[in-house]
Automatic annotation (TrEMBL):
Segments passing through the bilayer: 6-28, 40-61, 81-100
Protein name stated in the entry: G-protein coupled receptors family 1 profile domain-containing protein
Keyword Cell membrane: yes
Origin: domain of life: Eukaryota
Length: 122
């Protein structure tokens, strides 16, 4: 199990981390502040999805198994919540995270929130 974790979890995470180090060094060499902001905006959406996806996987598969049988119910509930987060929440957040980069979607969300805020004030 440890070898499989290293091959399928740690190696891709390290590869992504090293890639982002190179991306970050390239972004920091961009002369304009607007260019840096746009590049960080593009990278932040992908990095958020990667952190959510690999974070739950690493937590789920790399955690130590508890030997305490009195807390078995707590361990099972935690495993179920992590599985739910990995299997349902992450795929649902993925389109939301990427669509919020779209200007039209941002404008629609702001419009809805402004309408909701103004209706609550009345």
């Amino acid at each position: 199990m440890v070898v499989a974790n290293m091959i399928f979890l740690v190696v891709p995470v390290l590869f992504i981390f090293v890639s982002y180090v190179f991306i970050l060094s390239t972004i920091l060499r961009i002369p304009s502040a607007e260019g840096k902001l746009k590049a960080f905006s593009t990278c932040s959406a992908h990095l958020t999805v990667v952190i959510i996806f690999y974070g739950t996987i690493l937590f789920m598969y790399a955690k130590l198994k508890a030997k305490d049988f009195s807390g078995a119910d707590k361990v099972q509930v935690t495993d179920k919540i992590i599985s739910l987060f990995y299997g349902v929440v992450t795929p649902m957040l993925n389109p939301l995270i990427y669509s919020l980069r779209n200007k039209d979607v941002k404008a629609a969300v702001k419009n809805i929130l402004c309408r909701k805020c103004s209706s609550e004030e009345m």
